[in-house]
Write a structure and sequence with these properties.
Chain lengths: ~300, ~300
């Protein structure tokens, strides 16, 4: 269960442990961030900035540095934008289409199932398209999610052309007057040029069939993934114009800090986090809760020590 | 890509410190700083990096520089030796039980590649070792996990044992062994559901299966793209199940794969195979020295030694 303590409470704890702002303090801060898979460059830049800031303002006491740290961290995530939660874009006149992309095994199909459930709860009519025609059992997997959530799944046989499935999905969703079409795609590593071209083709079909679509291209990232997630974001961005991230498997011990670097370098926001394998386990992303989660271990040590 | 290999990082440092007779503390400090960053960027766990760096410092400082090398090259040599040593030797044999069938259990986090690797191992056992494996669908949780394994079985023309999703995985495993004995299968590969290492109930299920079927091999399947958390995952699975080896999947991607080093450091267990693609024939033996090179961009580094 995730605790409800605010980020600033957590920071207070860290500060209580280190009264003095010295090299040890910065080193531990650096390690905490690296342990959460925040990008190495991002961490080094941030900690350097903090060092300079401490010097400039002649800060000796860690309490005084607290606000600076919080500011910088939230700044890295949010930039200049305000704190509005990132709602999914909807098409007001006609079918809304969301495309799910990502490398193998990250949680695309599961996230689609969860989102279908959520949208249905909100009273929307949803259709799903089984665009992964490659992986063994992928179509059957989405079909099970369709049964669980009571959502129709448009499918072709295994091995058929993914773009054709998606095309049929669009036609079927329109014919049934659906609000939202969720498109599954096969997992693909971003360095596989032919597979990325195939994805690009799927994207083009959607663009062509519904003006303004896809309304969201959601890149699913596994929170357990390290630095490679940056490369994933870059390449999928180029191929399929990613508009948001679903950070899956955040119910484990991994922190998924790499999304800070991705947001920092590419401005792609996180829209949802996955917190388990069941249909209800999808939550809207909360930057504050996330940032303080990065420090959870440090704080746990602290609590145990008490 | 923002990803700098060690070679790029070390270029200037090496230039600066060439042509001295002894490796000074300052040389080592400058070089290990770059090595540390390169290792962290490759996803090696920060604690493992710390240990390695300390060892490297200890060994390198004050060393006489060999005639054919510059101080910079000398340090790189130490780094490479330490990494290769930590990686261990090549070890891609699959155990054989005294009495057949030999049982292999596949375990790991969700989506790591267990089911796919089950198919790959079965293919390897049959093609290369002329064996007759039985695949067992013991994942009753993930939607269509059984369909997935059955599809792989069909592709390989190999039998898959399943009891549907209502049965208990421990019972499935037990029944599978009975069936394998009756039908004279010499190997049984059990595909288990993905689970978090902190999920006590599901980890306990694995322990029960293990106690019942006495596997000759328990393979922890790990995604090569795993970041800092690899140590927690590997340590937990190993301490709860005493795994016999590791399979590193999705190495056909462009990740450096520092998780390999982290896993070795915390478990000491051999990485036996690597997954190099989604197809059932894309499983290869693990090469420790190649992996060490990959993590550091050492291919370049070695050429750097020649250039410098
Ligand atoms: N613990 C946990 N497991 C998850 C989460 N999301 C997905 N999974 C599990 O991760 C595994 C892979 O999920 P999939 O949805 O099949 O992933 P995918 O990206 O569609 O995989 P491919 O289509 O093979 O590329 C399954 O076992 C899911 O149940 C999550 O938020 N938490
Ligand atoms: N490119 C590549 N993909 C792989 C490799 N091994 C597995 N995959 C893919 O990774 C995804 C997950 O593989 P699975 O075998 O379903 O993983 P799993 O561990 O059984 O997943 P769960 O049962 O949900 O925990 C699938 O899309 C596989 O095709 C590999 O070596 N290379
Ligand atoms: Mg899928
Ligand atoms: Mg599986």
């Amino acid at each position: 269960k995730k605790t409800r303590t605010s980020f600033s409470d957590r920071m207070n704890n860290l500060m209580a442990r280190y009264r003095k702002v010295d090299e040890d303090f910065f080193e531990e801060l650096e390690e905490v961030l690296i342990a959460s898979d925040v990008g190495v460059n991002t961490v080094m830049d941030l900690v350097d900035e903090l060092r300079m800031e401490a010097k400039r303002q002649n800060i000796k006491d860690s309490i005084q540095l607290k606000d600076v740290i919080s500011e910088k961290l939230v700044e890295i995530y949010q930039g200049d934008e305000d704190e509005q939660p990132q709602k999914l874009k909807m098409n007001d006149d006609g079918l809304t289409i969301y495309l799910f992309v990502g490398v193998n095994g990250v949680g695309k199909t599961t996230s689609i199932g969860k989102l279908a459930y959520k949208l249905k709860q909100e009273g929307k009519k949803v259709v799903m398209a089984a665009g992964d025609t490659f992986r063994a059992g992928a179509i059957e997997q989405l079909q099970v999610w369709g049964e669980r959530t009571g959502v129709e799944v448009i499918r072709h046989n295994a091995g058929s052309d993914p773009a054709a499935v998606i095309y049929d999905g669009i036609k079927a969703a329109q014919a049934r007057g659906a609000d939202v079409l969720l498109c599954d795609t096969a997992g693909r590593l971003q360095n596989k040029v032919n597979l990325m071209n195939e994805l690009n083709k799927v994207h083009r079909v959607i663009e062509r069939e519904v003006p303004g679509a896809p309304h969201e291209v959601l890149l699913v990232l596994d929170a357990t993934t390290g630095q490679n997630a940056l490369a994933q974001a870059k390449t999928f961005q180029e191929t399929a114009n990613v508009s948001g991230i679903v950070l899956s498997k955040l119910d484990g011990t991994a922190k998924g800090g790499i999304v800070l670097a991705i947001r920092n370098e590419m401005k792609i926001p996180v829209k949802f986090v996955g917190l388990g394998e069941q249909m209800e386990d999808l939550q809207e992303f909360d930057p504050n809760a996330f940032v303080y989660g990065l420090f959870a271990d440090l704080m746990q040590d602290e609590e145990q020590a008490e | 890509m923002a990803f700098e290999g060690l070679a790029d990082r070390l270029q200037s440092t090496i230039q600066k410190i060439r042509g001295r007779g002894k490796v000074t503390e300052q040389d080592v400090k400058e070089m290990t700083r770059e090595v540390r960053l390169a290792l962290l960027e490759a996803d090696v766990n920060f604690k493992v990096v710390k240990q390695l760096i300390n060892k490297i410092k200890e060994r390198a400082i004050g060393q006489e520089v060999m005639e054919s090398l510059t101080p910079g090259q000398q340090v790189i040599k130490v780094v490479q030796e330490e990494l290769t040593q930590l990686m261990g030797g090549e070890q891609s044999k699959i155990a054989v039980a005294d009495r057949p069938p030999t049982v292999i259990m596949m375990v790991g986090l969700q989506g790591a590649g267990k089911t796919t690797t089950t198919g790959k191992l079965a293919n390897l056992l049959r093609k290369k070792h002329n064996r007759n494996p039985l695949l067992v669908a013991a994942d009753v949780y993930r939607p269509a996990a059984i369909d997935q394994l059955e599809t792989l079985g069909k592709q390989l023309s190999l039998p898959v044992f399943s009891m549907g999703t209502e049965a208990n995985p421990v019972d499935i495993a037990n029944e599978a062994i009975k069936k394998a004995k009756e039908e004279h299968h010499d190997y049984v590969i059990i595909d288990t559901a993905g689970r978090l290492h902190v999920d006590e109930k599901l980890m306990d299920e694995l322990t029960q299966i293990k106690t019942n079927v006495k596997p000759a091999e328990i393979f922890l399947v790990v995604d090569a793209m795993t970041g800092q958390d690899a140590v927690n995952v590997a340590e937990s699975f190993d301490s709860q199940l005493d795994i016999s080896g590791v399979v590193l999947t999705k190495l056909d991607g462009d990740t450096r794969g520092g998780a390999a080093l982290s896993i070795r450091a915390v478990t000491g267990k051999p990485i036996k195979f690597v997954g190099m693609g989604e197809r059932t024939d894309q499983l290869e033996a693990f090469h420790p020295e190649r992996m060490a090179s990959r993590i550091l961009g050492m291919g370049d580094v070695l050429s750097l030694i020649e250039k410098a």
